[in-house]
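The protein record passed on below.

***
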Amino acid sequence: MKNKHIDIQQAAEYFRDGMTIMVGGFMGVGTPPRLVEALLNSGVKDLTIIANDTAFVDTGIGPLVVNGRVKKVIASHIGTNPETGRRMIAGEMEVELVPQGTLIEQIRCGGAGLGGFLTPTGVGTVVEEGKQKITIADTEYLLELPLRADLALIQAHIADHQGNLVYQMTARNFNPLIALAADVVIAEPDSLVAVGDISPDQVMTPGALIDHIVCPKEC
């Protein structure tokens, strides 16, 4: 069995300038704090971040925005992070706002190997600008393309040594789907248990999708 355990310093070896990174979380809940801190401390820049939101200035992916490491954000909203709005208005950072359902479906399509999907969401609004519009049975749809990333950073509540993951309540949010849509997937669990301690019925993300596990401090 492949040893998937890495420490936070080894995780930082996967970071590089200009990469596209998906990060789980909703207003910081479900965002892996140690991995985001390592990403910030690594000094990498010009990142494209795909996430539900930019949380707060000191929470979630907010510190990456505040410290100028992000070139572009693709998100459903900017959260309660005023720095995101300031940088967007000043032209210092590109922000692509996507309806939340559309965003997660783009990620799901990227993970499933699909070429995109049709949705009526956004028709007749600024959302349709630059997108292909298709009419089926007198209904107009926008063609939304899949999203993938170089790297996905995931927070889990429990992991076993194979990388099978269990999430805690709403921290589940985007994490299971971004695990499907990135070339390399790193999980940060709160605790680590032996293989077999997680019932198969409880596994929310199978270990086959996880490349590396950042061990909890007691690991």
Q: What stands out?
A: The chain is about 20% helix and 30% strand.
